[in-house]
Specification:
8 strands, CRO Repressor, four-stranded antiparallel β-sheet, 241 residues, alpha+beta
Length: 241
Amino acid sequence: MDNVLDASFFVLWRAALSALVIFLLTKLTGPRQITQLTFLDYIMGITIGNLAAEMSVNSDIPWYSPVIAMALYTLISITTAYITDKSIQGRKLLTGIPTLLVFKGKIIEKNLNKNKFDINDLLTQLRIKGYFDLSNVEYAIMETTGDISILPKENYRPTILKDISVPTTQSSLSANVIIDGNIMEANLRNMKKDRKWLDNQVSSRGYKIKDVILMTLDSEDNINIQLKNQNIKDDEDNYFL
């Protein structure tokens, strides 16, 4: 019984100490840790959390060892934040720069690959932002936090139409009929089209299906085709540094 009480007391006081240490260290790093979470911040946060958990339950290590390690990781986080605030090259090296995924309405495939993104990931993020049709998007930018920022084409920028008395019609969903050179047979059937129609639409534009990274079709038969490996000179460093 005494051993159980001793073990419980050990966990309680160490858990309380680790929570206090994390609170103090978080105050030192400031709100940046939460609101501007970079890849490096994410790694530091996970590591500090693991150290705090180890400190709470591992009786084989002295309490001050994890505290020292957590303080060191926090110091690294603060130092890198200072460097990225003061140095453009330091910011590029430590946190990277935003990456253009869509440039003037065209998908930049090499930037998708660089960020371990595929076309489905991009379309998912666009839908989350409220854009169900890629043809409405002028620019899509992956921020260093992993979030996607979108600049729609001029005609699709948000406005309150009732305030300017403009009659509106309900937009319809677009179906992805080709993704990364693969025909989405079910989507094609749902849009009441067949393979022959698809071949004609693609070939009449001078393309081959294997060269298409994305083709969408809406209920009004509007088509948007994005090609693989487009040589788009986005010059992204000049945009974001």
